[in-house]
Design goal:
The structure is a homodimer.
Chain A lengths: L12 H8 L3 H9 L7 H14 L5 H7 L5 E6 L7 H15 L3 E6 L4 H13 L5 E11 L10 E8 L6 E4 L1 H13 L6 E6 L4 H16 L9 E4 L3 H6 L1 H6 L4 E4 L2 H13 L9 E3 L5 H4 L8 E2 L3 H12 L11 E3 L3 E2 L11
Parallel strand pairs in A: 1-2, 1-3, 3-4, 4-5, 5-11, 6-7, 6-8, 8-9
Antiparallel strand pairs in A: 10-12
Helix pairs in contact in A: 1-2, 1-3, 2-3, 5-13, 7-8
Chain lengths: ~350, ~350
């Protein structure tokens, strides 16, 4: 659905894609001459659509000549309540500045009215495009206003794949988490996953399975439990984990690991001697300061922001309709040891 | 010290203040007609300086008529590493939007080159003024570029009081923390303060003393210890705290309290039954999810950002050269109980 555009409505990459019958990333490849292999016919359709619609990929150049400004907008939904949005901003700003763009940041704290004003403010300032970001990885419906601007989704994606997106590679992250334990010789590895349906839940579980498979271990549903994804969920799962007789536990996030630590302590058990633990997120204030410090896998928020700007500026492009998936690197600390022989 | 201004250098409120021999906040009161009591003579000196220097408090109005934009800049030093900067941004944005201004946010992560580019970018965009903020409360030297723009310091202040500033009222916060314990009948209250010299260290100690005094209790230096202001510091202080035979402990921040919880647990002791604990900061991911949840005092970052914009726009002004001090409200949770009779 398009919103009603007035006479000032700029033609976007999405319009070109629709007219040419190709994906937005194909248009981006053609416009920015990335060297990606695009069939001659599709390339020609894109060129014709650009001409027909009067799309100007370098519209801001006019403004520049007049001494105007070059903006990239960033809409974030939880600057005040998580450290994650800040890392997306940091990465986006570094990359935007490097290319002479100023980042216009708007925080919505999930409020739709704030979001709508933020987007119209950005359109009024003739942004080169907008990064629309969420603090946790999920599917989103694109706000109506954003159909009028080139948009890249950051840490989120549209269900129909119609908008370029940059997301964490949850599956690779799940693999890395399991590998941290496998490498130390663990063979019976529990997974405290979140009970909230989400790409993180599915992807991390898939990665965990893959890593077990690659190590020649069977996938055992009895070793997987779904918990509330916070400290309370980890604390409440202690008895369940102990009953699994695992030597290592992969927790859906660092907060679950923090709660699990507390519960284990109350049972007189020690991390890692009695149980090795791996988290996810690398939320510094927790992971780097638990006792012992928590081995975990980092969510690449800085990199998501940076790559989002690169996609927006046409410096790189997702392949086809799938989001660009950014690796989640392992962060080993002190919560894993070799399992005792028993 | 003034930076060398070119022909484009705008006259600032600071220039007017200097020429008139009054404080910046006096100029702000006169310019914005706040109704504050300013002597007729000072008022006249300000008016004359405004005329002599050609100061235009409503310079942006010109831009507005031309359809240009109205910006307020916000420089933050740690968006990516703490949740605090995000709360300042949130408050500043809400207030700026309410008055038709767009917030231009720049993150420096403490990097001087990034700070200098951020400030010149803001000046190029003819910001109405700049909020210069730090993630922890401290004295700062104003960056050279900011002498060219109206500036309000947020969560920081200039040692000479020459720039309007909005800071947390650490003393009232210290009082509130001690009161949370006093109200439950505690009489022997330890204070694990930070060993880092800072306004937070001095102010919270003063507040703690005042609250004890108001309750008719003597100040006892043996009940105060300086620790590293994080989990490690709190954990390492357990023996010291137990030796103090206090029934309640006020921790410099929530992170210290989190470490103390761990240490107490390893001694087989329980919060709050064996020891009541109060934190400071209200860092949600910790305070709201420790076991038991942590009673604490909130740092008012949202309010600091909001009031910073209000001061910048002349909607309120600090009295004299002292920073505007914003209250730190208590946040009672479950880590305090009445001391057992013994």
């Amino acid at each position: 659905m398009k919103s009603e555009g007035g006479t000032h409505r700029a033609v976007t990459m999405r319009d070109v894609a629709q007219a040419a019958g190709v994906s937005v990333s194909t248009v981006s490849h053609v416009v920015n001459d990335t060297g990606a292999r695009i069939g001659a016919e599709a390339r020609e359709r894109v060129r014709r659509a650009i001409e027909d619609l009067g799309y100007r990929p370098n519209a801001m150049a006019k403004n520049l000549v007049k001494g105007g400004s070059r903006f990239v907008g960033l809409v974030a939904d939880a600057i005040a309540s998580t450290p994650f949005a800040g890392q997306i901003i940091h990465g986006a700003q570094d990359e935007a500045w490097q290319h002479g763009y100023v980042l216009l940041v708007a925080n919505t704290e999930g409020n739709e009215a704030a979001e709508a004003s933020a987007i119209s403010m950005m359109l009024e300032h003739k942004v080169r495009g907008v990064l629309y970001s969420t603090w946790y990885h999920r599917a989103v419906d694109l706000p109506a206003g954003l159909t009028e601007a080139d948009t890249v989704l950051v840490n989120c994606f549209s269900a129909d794949g119609s908008t370029p997106a940059v997301v964490p590679d949850e599956r690779s992250g799940g693999r890395e988490a399991a590998r941290l334990l496998l490498e130390q010789g663990h063979r019976r590895i529990a997974f405290l996953n979140t009970r909230t349906p989400s790409p993180a839940r599915d992807g991390r579980l898939e990665g965990y399975r893959e890593a077990l498979g690659a190590a020649g271990l069977p996938f055992d549903l009895d070793l997987v439990a779904d918990v509330r994804p916070d400290q309370e969920g980890g604390y409440a799962a202690v008895d369940k984990v102990l009953a699994m007789r695992a030597t290592g536990v992969f927790c859906h996030n660092d907060r679950v690991a923090m709660g699990l630590y507390d519960g284990l302590r109350e049972h007189g058990l020690r991390v890692p001697d009695d149980l090795s633990v791996v988290g996810f997120d690398n939320q510094e204030v927790i992971a780097a300061h638990l006792r012992p410090t928590l081995s975990t896998v980092a969510l690449p928020h800085y990199e998501l922001g940076r790559r989002g700007v690169r996609v927006l500026l046409g410096l790189e492009a997702p392949e086809g309709a799938a989001p660009l998936a950014v690796n989640c690197p392992p962060v080993p600390r002190s919560s894993i040891t070799r399992p005792s022989e028993s």
